[in-house]
Design brief:
The complex is a heterodimer of chains A (about 260) and B (about 290). Helix content of chain A is about 80%, strand content about 0%. With about 260 residues, chain A is mostly helical. Chain A folds into two domains: about 35 residues; about 220 residues, MetI-like fold (Orthogonal Bundle), CATH 1.10.3720.10. The longest helix of chain A has about 40 residues. Chain B is α/β, with parallel strands linked by helices. Chain B has two domains: about 160 residues, 3-Layer(aba) Sandwich (Rossmann fold), CATH 3.40.50; about 60 residues. In chain B, the strands form two sheets. A six-stranded mixed beta sheet of chain B has the order 5-6-7-3-8-9, sandwiched between helices. Chain B is globular. The chains are: A mainly alpha (about 260), B alpha/beta (about 290). At the A-B interface, helix 7 and helix 8 of A face loops of B.
Chain lengths: ~260, ~290
Amino acid sequence: MKSTTQSILRNGTGWLLPALIVLAWEIAARTGLISPNVMAAPSAVAEAFWRLLLSGELVRNIGVSTARALSGFVIGGSIGLIFGLANGLSGLSRNLTDTTLQMVRNIPHLALIPLVILWFGIDEEAKLFLVALGVFFPIYVNTLLGIQSVDPQLVEMGRVYGMSRTTLFFRVILPGALPAIFVGLRYALGIMWLTLIVAETIAASSGLGYMAMQAREFLLIDVVVLSILIYALLGKLADSFARLLERLTLQWHPAFQTA
Amino acid sequence: MAVIALDQKAKPARPAKETAEARALRETPPGQWFPYAAPQPRERDNRDIAFSFRGISRKFGDKTVLDNIDLDVPAGQFIAVIGKSGCGKSTLLRLLTGLDKPTSGTLTVNKGAQGENRTRIMFQEPRLLPWAKIAKNVEVGLTGIAKGAEAREKSLAILNEVGLADRAEEWPSVLSGGQRQRVALARALVAHPYILALDEPLGALDALTRIEMQHLLESIWQQQTFTAVLVTHDVAEAVALADRVIVIDHGRIALDLDIPLERPRRHGSPDLARLEGKILDTLFGENK
């Protein structure tokens, strides 16, 4: 009984500050401290939320954006994981591709937007390409790092005990690299939303970013604020999901053991 | 068993149904079948050789780490290898366990019936997989030998022997240093190795845990008949545990000393002290 209240308190404290900010913001808007042309009051945002929810526009746009984000993530993430694993395990593969990948990595992927629009127009491919590209590098770099930092003493131990290459990979190398891969995963999730927002704001005919841009045209500031808040929530959701995965797979790690 | 060895040429009519064990014995050359099935008594008059070094040298560039080493170790012997750091004693173990290859010379190591590697090594660090529960870590020792329920059963049995049966479902990170090293010992022994190479496995433990581990090691060695090769820099430990002590100096065997004392040996007894003094004299010259 006591422990449940304690856990509610612990989880609740993180939400205390956002709640206070919203409250202060509402008061400031009501008293006219913030002009409605600059910032919509939370109540107005809530109203906009309700309106768009009823019209079905919100759900459709969130659906479109999430589908784009996830498919781009899956494509870029798996390519990054494959390259990271290959380059971590094989010196030949690393010598062949790592220099090139490191060069491409230093190009800000959003700088490719003009080129991408020329190539793909404003269709789905453009967004998928950008998200996949953005997600690729954190996953790649961290997977590679994770594999390279696996304790060589454990690898030697595995060899002495006669593990085959496959067994060695699944029992020793992959679990050892997993914490670093998760760091890459969480980083990539952040980049995934960022890229998608930018891409949708510049070149799209649906999605959350498009909804925000349309609202700007018509000076619907409440809808603009609403889209930003939804981005924040979706980002938090993705991060929580990654943490849940981490918790499930890294139970052995002292940092994840509940005392 | 000796009868079977003598009958190699004659090959009498075999019984209609042969057990797998008998077949393995028949197909294994006599020099290799210790200790196949049943534990054998410690006092044997015709001892098999567990491994032998013949003119083994190992050079790293210009530096000669091991210089023309000749060494025969009978099966079941507890041999300790002592030397100052950098004298080549760890290299000797790495050669024995196949982690390294000699520059010249021949090395014969007793293999299993199917030619499988029956040599195990215990490192200075436990080297447990942090992401595997204790029992799973012990099962690593059965890689390619047993799987599933059988592996599980064997690992629990050996954990029981090292006194950690109740910790089977815990993560290595919650164990103490001594307990982790006991898990590593269990992992090395679970497949009943012919030879157990110990690379200063007690070096990182505190003095009391160390004595406890020495007793455990000795009692398990007395139960299971494996050949133990203990590399250590602790002369007292070597004399307390081993049947025979080898001192390596500048890549050569400087002293090969039998320790004919009865077990269990008491720490600090005058006989141990005398032998210890003799070894230290070899290591540091006899200047008084």
